[in-house]
Write a structure and sequence with these properties.
The chain is about 70% helix and about 5% strand. The protein is mostly helical and about 375 residues long.
Length: about 375
Amino acid sequence: MISFGRTIPITIYPSFWLLVLGLGWSSMSGIYGIFLFGVVVFISLIAHEFGHALTAYYFGQRVSIELTLLGGATLRLGKSGGLLREFLIICMGPLASISIVILSRLLIQINLGGAALTPFLSLMFIANLFWTVINLLPVQPLDGGKIMEIVLLVLFPRKGRRLSFLVSAGFGLAASLFFFSAGAIFAGAIFMLCFWESVQSYRLMRDQGEGDGYYKELNEIESQVSSGQYTEVFAKLHALLEKTNLPKAILARAYKQLIELYLAQEKAREAYEAVKAAEVGLQNNLPYQLLVLKQLAAYRTSHFDESVQAGSQAYRMRPELSTAILLALASGQRHNTIETVRWLQSAKSLGFDDFKKLLACSDFDSVRVDPTIASFTY
């Protein structure tokens, strides 16, 4: 893993080079062709993500860029400040790619660099044009899908997000079938995954709309938590969770409240058992907040493998500092030096700097002597 940059940290994971090698091998011939393709992919992705990142940074968000097996991603912390700003942040990525398309075409026309640069410029033109067209399809989580979601939210404030997932599912399925029929198996598989995720998100939001009565009950329970009526709260939550055919959104929120209560009262074992029950009820498809709670409950009950697994999933969804630190602690308990270094670097990229105090924790006893880990305290 390679990390560099301070204002906008950039992390390149080893899996990214597998992506470059795989795409280059299937698209180009010869070592030089694969190398040239890799350079084009790297420059194009960095430019695209910087379009997002610089705009988000201008609006006050903390940003970082990651290059992984799935391509590039701009991770953002903090609120953007409304739909208009969110729209601008999303649009600046494709605009950066379009700028490369225009610039490459102009340089080819004026024959800058002669025959030596023409293959490189031609590949830059084709790759960015193709990617921009694909990326602007109204499919979540592509930029086109996010733009469509914002437009629908403006037109239909109450149902816009749910409609966006319905549209995304339709276009995702159509794109998947098209690429499969064209023999592009990798692209077809990616769009099939987008289709499935959109369907799941649509179902979840539909269930939320159907569970208004349960939401009222959960809101009342939250009020009782605030007033310290814990005995009644536990009884009501258990009674609610015993009901059959609960919408999954209600089930997830009820388990979230129950697990949070157990953790707040230092009942880690009960919290962990509630997490396992939630996994059964939600068919192992835990939403972000329950993954975070599973990470903490598993850590407090010394189920460190499960803590790392849940934390890694949560971090991919939303890179939070607390998640990265707990991942580093659990990885230290597993005596896994490589993973510990990875999560310490993630914490550093999110602005954490008190490593001397953190590494004094007993969780790091088995890995603290490693020179890379020790270097965090310098």
